[in-house]
Amino acid sequence: MVIKVFLASSSGSTAIKKKQQDVVAFLEALKVDYAQLDIACNEENRMWMRQNVPEEKKPANGIPLPPQIFNEESYCGDYDTFFDAKEDNSVYAFLGLPPPPGSKEVPVEKCNGDAHGEEGEEEGEVAEGETADDEAMEEETAGDKAPAEEEAAVEETDEAHAEEEEEQEEADDDREEEDLQSEEEEAE
Biased-composition ranges for Acidic residues (predicted)? Predict the structure, then answer.
C-alpha cells in the first residue's frame, strides 16, 4: 500500500507550504512509504485529487486545497484531520496502515472494538495461566512503551516548525525594515 500525498510545488501560500512540509516530514520520520503527487504542474493529478475527495470533505467553494492524503484510492483526509490523528497518536489508523511493533498506537481493529484479547477469548475471560490482575496490568502498561520512531518524528516536525517560524519572523522583520526605510525616504 502506498500513501499518496497531493501537494502543490509552487504554492504562493506559506500556510499551505508549511502544512505540506509537516505532512511529508512526519511521514519520512515514521519511514512510511509514500508518493508525492504534484497538482501544480500535473493537471491529471489535480483532477484526480479533486474528483476523489468526498463531497462532505470539500470546502464551501468545492475546491480542496493541498495537502490531501490517500491510501491508494482510499481518501484518508486533509491536513487538519492528519494533524488531529498526529495529536491523538493515531496516524497509522488515519493512514489505514497497521502500526509497527512496539507502537503506542492501538491497531485499527482494536480501535473499532472488534479485537479484544486473544482469539477464542471472550471479554472478561482470562487466558490460561494468567490472573485477572495480570491481564489488567498488561492493558495498563501496553500504552506506556513509547517507540523511538514516533518520538523522533514528533521532535523532527516540532524542530521544523520552530525553524519555519524563525524564518517567517526574520522575513517579517526584513519587510518591516524595508517599509520603515521607504517611509523615511518618502518623508525626506
Answer: 119-141, 149-188
